[in-house]
Amino acid sequence: MLSPALLIVCGLFIGGLALGFVGSLGYMPLIGQETFNLDAYRQILLSERFLLSFLLTFHIAFTSTVIASLLALGAALILRQSFLGRSVINFLFQINLTVPHLVGAVGILYLFSQSGVFARLAYEFSLISKPSEFPAMIFDPLAIGIIMQYVWKEIPFIGLILLANMQTIGRDYEAVAQSLGASRWQSFRHVLLPLLMPGLLTSGMIVFAFTFGAYEIPALLGQNYPAALPVLAYQAFTDVDLNARPEALAMAMIIALLSAVMIYGYARFTRRYIRK
Amino acid sequence: MRRNLFANSVIATRLAAFLILLAIMAPLMAKAADKQSFNNWEEVVEAARGGTVNWFMWGGADNINEYVSGYIGSELKDRYDITLKRVGINDTAEAVNIVIGEKQAGVDDAGSVDLIWINGGNFRTMKQGDLLFCGYHSLLPNNKLVNWQDPSIAHDFGLPVDECEVPWNRAQFAFAYDSARTENPPKSIAELIDWVKENPGEFTYPASTDFNGSVFIRHVFYHAAGGPEALLGDFDQEKFDAIAPKAWAILNEMEPYLWREGETYPNAIASLAQLFANREVALYFDYDPAIFGINVENGIFPETTRSYGLQDGTIGNTNYVAIPYNSPNKAATMVAANYLLSFDAQYEKAKSDVWGAAPAIDVSKLDDDAAARFAALPRHPAVIAPEVLAQKSLPELHPDWISAIEKGWQENVGN
Q1: Chain A residues within 8 A of B403 when measuring between CB atoms
Q2: Which CATH architecture is the domain B43-169+318-382 placed in?
Q3: For B263, which of A141, A219, A237 is closest by C-beta distance?
Q4: What pTM did the predictor assign?
Q5: Does domain B174-316+392-412 have CATH number 3.40.50.970?
Q6: N or C: fewer beta carbons within 10 Å in chain B?
Q7: Angle at the Cα of B35 (from B31 to B39), degrees rounded to 5?
Q8: Is the CATH code 1.20.120.1460 the one for domain A27-275?
Q9: ipTM
């Protein structure tokens, strides 16, 4: 039963990776390059452009993962209580799971750009007199718009995993801790949180890996320099000069490698943390 | 039930055998069709009947998509029984990448791309990789409407066309502004430099990775070089090193007065259109001035939008359609390319409510009646007349020059 899935993974994923790797070594018979070399890697790793792009991409992935995890934890803690209208709130909480990333990005653009809805409101209330006085949150150096989009989209994802976790864990452990004199904070900090940690870290890892390698959101909401790594790689891949192809493929290889290394490191860190 | 199963398995076996046979035969048959050279147009039209054309083209403008899928699609169906499939892409290089991939995989006669809307660097890439079907112009009856004596048609960004592509449109860069808001827009690059300083935050241009951003930067480059003459021909590092610092100095001098103090540049021309539509910037520009009228009609740009060329001229080019070497539908695709050149198709395309694109054919080669119909076409008030714009037209550069300028901008200005 596994074979169709394996075939697709091996054939398309590994096959594509292998072809990309060969291309990144400068092997392009089409333009008469039939030797292997590491020029593309050398060129990329020595360029400031690539370094800045890496830092930006890391910042986007890390910051959105941390913010989304914290907010999702808070939301899950609230949603687990029973209160009036909980099912409505619960529904609203999950609704954006079905909204595609791109649609969310366009929404962010309409709301937060310097001529977006909030800028227009600020103008109506005479807080600003022209678009450029509204704080830049799209195409900005700190990637605020991109992070907002990811946080908005990932909170329900992490939140749902946490809620499911809480359901399995139940309230018994906390009840025991509290009956033994633990405060509400202590029972959360020392009982519930450690139990939730595996779920929180795993979902965080998925979010991190996704945001690190995603192209469309930084392409729509990001500034042109430095651009996020996937955007940089795509720009090189669509360069009209065929000689730029090895660099584009080398960049894609590096993104794949960096994601793999970071996920591996994260997984090791998590495992150690959980064992404690 | 049993019988049924048995019968099914027999059919399945036969089907499998047939499919295997087909798989073996298909390349042979395709090869045979490819080798068959056409003696005259009638043979091409005959072979094209029932064929399909997969046309990969930039899909970012609804009106162009509608013209191609609607008008061209139904005309080809009615006249020649050809099915046109428009495949919208974001960047022409995506289609080029598909053909490159196919060539590397050895797919030499069953490619998935039949026609590409192309010019400039992407044409160079395909020529460089020997990825084009060439030498068929003499077959196309409408080729006689093209003025091949015009160097801006016979050369695509300085590269000889060599019967490897068919002209489709002419385009010339122009600026647009809102006449209700800006009284005296700058009419030359020199004026623009002063204007930007007097109107901080009111101007910006897309980064050099964008097609239109790149051509704006070339105008500044021409200005720094004192005209395009010195830059024509093959790339010359010495000349580049002499001129480039001047151009970067001009652009860096402008930078603090740009939108967002030049901290960032829009990634795409669509973002600049949005900034102009939202009154964040006062000037817009495009390689295809027809877009000004279309944006006014769509309610994106203000009614009072007007456009103009520069005193020293603006850069013009021809854009083409090309057939990849591995297209399995060459006959149908040649018929499509020929039809695109016809008076009917070019006239329809020139209507301002359809597209408003300048024709690639030489109107003076048409009969009087047809030429008069072209001359009588109403023009959108937001769109400068192509004849006026064409009075001062600057040539495009060799793709190597363009690559060097784009890279230089990224390293010296856009970071």
Answers
A1: 239-241
A2: 3-Layer(aba) Sandwich (3.40)
A3: A141
A4: 0.79
A5: no
A6: N
A7: 145
A8: no
A9: 0.74
